[in-house]
Write a structure and sequence with these properties.
Layout (H helix, E strand, L loop, with lengths): L8 H15 L12 H13 L2 H28 L1 H13 L1 H5 L7 H16 L3 H12 L5 H13 L5 H27 L6 H10 L6 H20 L1 H12 L8 H23 L7 H5 L4 H13 L2 H42 L1 H13 L5 E3 L2 H7 L7 E3 L11 H11 L1 E7 L6 H4 L9 E2 L3 E9 L4 E8 L9
Parallel strand pairs: 1-2, 1-3
Antiparallel strand pairs: 3-6, 4-5, 5-6
Helix pairs in contact: 1-2, 1-18, 2-3, 3-4, 3-6, 3-15, 4-15, 6-7, 7-8, 7-9, 8-9, 8-13, 11-12, 11-13, 11-16, 12-15, 13-15, 17-18
Length: about 475
């Protein structure tokens, strides 16, 4: 938690959302983000009084539980040695480590997925369905992934109608309850609509099957090896060959879950077509990785006897050293890269937010977005914060901008070069970090950061105060 400053702006946006849930009396939840992580964090905030401590606490504890549950699940499927090997990899894997140290909902999602699979290993179908429902209330894709796993597992033994009812009942009840909530709050049953549209709209501009397949190949040949190492990537198909697909078993259910988790992740790449290097894929990997690693290690372990027969103990040791060395090198390199990226892109915004909290007047009006805005909103305050989305000024009109700044008594302006923030559309001239004289006001640059792309301005009035006025 010390050197790492988050995956993206949403790490900090979650803090404001947690506070919002608490202040709404646990009534208002964002339709696209699902309620469980924010509800649990808000409950903890009610005790601690600190959104940061609450949100980080939930992620951290769930990160630890992800390790523990991965070890237990692997032990049940393949024995104690498999459990410890999987646990060690889960500890070192970049996403599983870093995102447990930030305010993201993915660690809670992974805990619920693993809890569902563990319940299936003991034939606790109703409990498995409940955990699947809680996973859905954390990330909605759990319905499409764990639903089929529960159904296949339930059909694997006699008394199928009763088993299917137990396996799907709690999950479908929670899905229906969330859909009903969305209808009452947002007047739509289709809770998936907005999130799906956003991912499709913000991905590749010209979507074709060929370009989608290119993204999938990039994820398999670039993203996964970089974040896991080649041995684990190649071990996954080997592990799938060991699965008794025609026979009911926990092994089959865990393997099916791993295939569907990976398939959904690749399916997003095929349909939304974000570039394979996009950081959204990193976050979405969190729930995929524990079952994937389990299946991969089983596949690699199956090679050991064959390698020993082919070249004896020296060949086995050499192959193990190469697999471990390349994997550790990839994972530690990716870990370091993401930490440095967070320090380059998000730390400056956090430092600016802390500066504003200490130096801006308690009643000040600030035109801010992204991390500074949501950081200030993590706790109650009297400052007025306005987003660029809410600035009623025509594109490039300096006179309108000046009049609005004066009428709203804005003290500071934070301009971003990212198009989605609307700042470049409304005030493209602020891209140049120089003093901008807009007539009745002057914008003086105080700080800039080129990596993410923002300039921070102080707003000075150029009009002399009236005689006798303070």
């Amino acid at each position: 938690m010390g050197p790492y400053y988050g995956w993206e702006e949403s790490d900090y946006g979650n803090l404001a959302m947690v506070r919002g849930v608490l202040e709404s009396g646990f009534v208002h939840y964002d339709m696209s983000h699902l309620p469980l992580y924010y509800g649990v964090s808000a409950a903890l905030m009610a005790v601690t009084g600190d959104a940061v401590m609450a949100a980080l606490g939930v992620s951290f504890v769930c990160g630890l539980l992800t390790v523990a549950l991965s070890v237990v699940l692997a032990d049940r499927i393949g024995g104690q040695t498999l459990g410890w090997v999987v646990g060690l990899i889960v500890v070192l894997q970049p996403e599983l480590a870093l995102y447990s140290a930030s305010s993201l909902r993915e660690p809670l999602y992974a805990v619920m997925v693993l809890s569902c699979l563990l319940a299936l290993t003991r034939e606790r179908l109703a409990w498995a369905s409940l955990f699947a429902g809680l996973a859905f209330l954390t990330r909605m894709d759990a319905l499409l992934i764990l639903g089929p796993v529960l159904a296949v597992h339930a059909l694997g033994r006699s008394q199928r109608p009763l088993r299917v009812l137990k396996a799907l009942g709690p999950l479908l009840l929670l899905v229906a309850a969330w859909s009903l909530y969305c209808f009452q709050m947002y007047e739509t049953w289709q809770f998936w609509g907005h999130a799906t549209a956003v991912n499709l709209e913000t991905g590749g501009q010209e979507k074709t099957l060929l370009s989608g397949l290119g993204v999938v190949l990039g994820l398999l040949g670039q993203t996964l090896p970089t974040h896991l190492g080649w041995a684990l990537v190649l071990g996954f198909p080997l592990g799938l060959l060991l699965v008794p697909w025609r026979r009911h078993s926990p092994h089959r259910s865990v393997a099916l879950a791993s295939v569907l988790l990976l398939g959904f992740w690749l399916g997003i790449g095929l349909s939304a077509q974000h570039a394979p290097t996009h950081n959204l894929y990193w976050k979405w990997l969190y729930g995929v990785l524990p079952p994937f690693i389990l299946v991969s290690v089983m596949g690699l372990a199956s090679l050991a006897p064959r390698l020993r027969r082919l070249g004896g103990k020296p060949v086995l040791i050499l192959a193990l050293a190469l697999a471990v060395g390349q994997g550790a090198w990839s994972m530690m390199g990716e870990m370091r890269r993401q930490v440095l990226l967070s320090q380059e892109l998000y730390k400056p915004q956090l430092l600016l937010a802390r500066w504003l909290e200490s130096n801006a007047a308690p009643e000040a009006h600030l035109l801010v977005d992204n991390i500074p805005g949501v950081w200030l909103d993590r706790r109650a305050h009297e400052r007025q914060l306005t987003s660029w989305f809410d600035v009623p000024v025509a594109s490039g009109n300096r006179a309108e901008m000046a009049a609005w700044l004066v009428s709203e008594k804005v003290s500071y302006v934070l301009w971003f070069q990212e198009e989605w923030t609307q700042a470049p559309r409304i005030a493209p001239y602020l891209a140049s970090p120089v003093v901008h004289d807009l007539g009745v006001v002057r914008l003086v640059p105080l700080q800039q950061e080129a990596g993410y792309g923002w300039v921070f301005y102080r707003v000075d009035s150029t009009q002399a105060p009236l005689e006798g006025s303070p």
